[in-house]
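We emphasize that the prediction below concerns an isolated chain of 507 residues; any contacts that depend on oligomerization or on bound cofactors are therefore not represented. The input was used exactly as deposited, without trimming of termini.
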Amino acid sequence: MSEYIYVLGMDGNPQMPTKRKKHVEKLLQTGRARIFRHIPYTIQLTYENDPVLQPITLAEDPGRSNIGMAVVSLSGELLSAAVVQTRNKEIVKLMEKRKQHRRASRNGERKARQRLAKKCHTMLKVGSLMRKLPMYGKDKRVKCLVIRNTEARFCNRKRKDGWLTPSAEHLVRTHINLIHKMQKFLPITDVAIEINRFAFLSLEDPSVSGVDFQKGPLKGYDNLNAAVEDLQDGHCLMCDRPIEHRHHIVPRSMQGSNTIENIAGLCCKCHEKVHKNAAFEKRLKKKKAGLDKRYAAISVLNQAIPFICKQLEQEFGKEHVHYCSGKDTAMVRRSFGYHKTKEEQLHEVDAWCIAVLSLQQIPEKAPEFDHVYKIMQFRRQDRSRIKAQTSRTYYYDGKKVAKNRKKAEGQKEDSLQEWRECHVTLYGEEQARKMISQLKVRKSIRRYNRLDRLMPGAVFYYKGTRYVMRGQHNKGQYLQAVGMGSKDFPVKDCKIVAQNEGLVFVS
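Result of the prediction step, given as a token string:
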């Protein structure tokens, strides 16, 4: 595939791309065009013209971590190809972090109300439904709902029709945003996508059919132990020794289930290690989670693809959206001599096969995929930073001695409670109380994002070379770029040309 130059009209609308590099150079020299973007190389005309547009099809090979994309003309010629690296797997971790921040914030507000009520002697008896709190003065009092032991409210927790899990919703938006991004460079008229509906039981056993789908994971086994034995091939999950113990990942004492998802077969030595070594227990949980989540990516795709198709039909019309199966794609790919491996997934080749299937005319020769763009997805907002609070710190004689009233999760420094207990032991109650009265406190504050704050994905130039920012350190004095390892770029010598756009052309 020869590298195309993308063309925008004077009004900013995309026109047909061109290979006429000398003609483009003349336009730039005479001022009849200007460079709009370097990657992908795009020019914008500075004069009015009457463009002749042709049907162009964009094809997507849907995936969770990687998306293949190809744009072809009516004759099947490849106009653009790209592989998109998504950040969908981060969503689960970010949702967990968000939950922790929300929980900490609510707990802090509850504690503040409790302290105020205790200070003002307005605490009512345990079990009472109402509490009085002072507000805006000594004489005014307002009633506030009891903080603890409130009845669960389910009226505002009903899921709407068409609800998706956060990871599936993110994947839908990513696929749609990718198409919207390519519409800025090419006049796309049609869209093609591969659709598959995966059945997990048939992936494990291709002979499964009919009523067999209604049977659970213990189908064909006498008991749970036999199922665990077969799942792990009779070997300990952590070594090659025979299974001697059935270990519950979440203990029964902590309401852990007695299901195959919660049981790991272990030998005697590994079973002893699990109960004595926390690091070994963590490794076991990770390995068991990997064993149970083989089809996590497929599960997200099963949820997302119907919604992607629905939105594409709304935007382009049903007659301009084309579908094919994975079986058809594989057949076309093999006919041109391409074979998938773990190291080489060929997402862009699959996307081109999907595109030519939609055209219903398979060319005699496949194009050369020597100009394949790499697109990376970056986070555009840092909500964890917005939700996070700085720690409350305590100083004695100018030195930091404690952090927070009680120890937070993952905190290594002493809390105020621990510092007090230590000094009571050393100096006595009265002396410790005097020392506490001399403490200086720096209160915790909310962190807020600056609008001009650089986020990963920003494009900058350093000594005439284009880079995509991966991160920054030393209080923002140095930048780091994608694919450049730990090399530092001084901010004062860098020229920022574009902020993070979500989906960024890296190379």
